[in-house]
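User: Can you recover a sequence for this backbone? Please restate the input before giving your answer.

Assistant: Of course. Working from this structure:
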């Protein structure tokens, strides 16, 4: 099973379509909602929704869904998480709160202390963009160092692209890099799930 966490826009049709793609690959895909049904396509509203998220409540939500899917009939017990932007950070947070077998972060906030990263069970795959002003080389470098200190496995891929390069509804969508990142994601899940 793979838990999907949405971008700062909320649980929109684009994320639901990725869950459907994962289902075609043979996974039980569950797209969870950390905005309680709210969705927007306006950056100011997205920022406000993101800032309104209560970290403790969101942590309980992701951990509860992981626990639920772990007990679901037809799931082999192996679970992964994947998220984009806001959801990329929450993919990592979910895997810390309820350790899973594989974690994928698409340009999400990864600056976590070593003690939290020690809770991870499986490896982490990160997709990052060279022109990203938020999730930059400094943050990712610190994350890689902290993962090494925690004794955990991380593989980071950098793309000559902008933040949100993998979202086909974005004006900065990079089809070639998005496909490469997706192929790497599928291979990672196949190897670990």
């Amino acid at each position: 099973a793979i838990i999907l966490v949405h971008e700062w826009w909320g649980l929109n049709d684009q994320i639901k379509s990725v869950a459907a793609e994962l289902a075609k690959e043979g996974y039980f895909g569950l797209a969870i909602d950390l905005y309680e049904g709210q969705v927007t396509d306006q950056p100011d509203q997205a920022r406000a929704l993101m800032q309104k998220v209560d970290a403790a409540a969101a942590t309980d939500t992701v951990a509860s869904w992981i626990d639920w899917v772990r007990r679901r009939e037809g799931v082999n017990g192996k679970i992964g998480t994947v998220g984009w932007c806001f959801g990329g950070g929450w993919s990592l947070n979910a895997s810390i709160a309820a350790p899973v077998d594989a974690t994928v972060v698409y340009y999400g906030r990864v600056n976590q202390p070593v003690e939290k990263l020690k809770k991870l069970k499986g490896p982490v795959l990160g997709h990052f963009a060279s022109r990203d002003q938020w999730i930059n080389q400094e943050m990712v470098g610190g994350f890689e160092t902290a993962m090494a200190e925690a004794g955990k496995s991380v593989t980071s891929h950098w793309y000559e692209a902008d933040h949100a390069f993998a979202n086909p509804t974005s004006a900065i969508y990079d089809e070639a890099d998005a496909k490469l990142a997706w192929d790497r994601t599928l291979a990672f899940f196949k190897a670990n799930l």
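That completes the design. The helical segments are 13-24, 43-52, 55-70, 86-97, 114-117, 137-150, 175-192.
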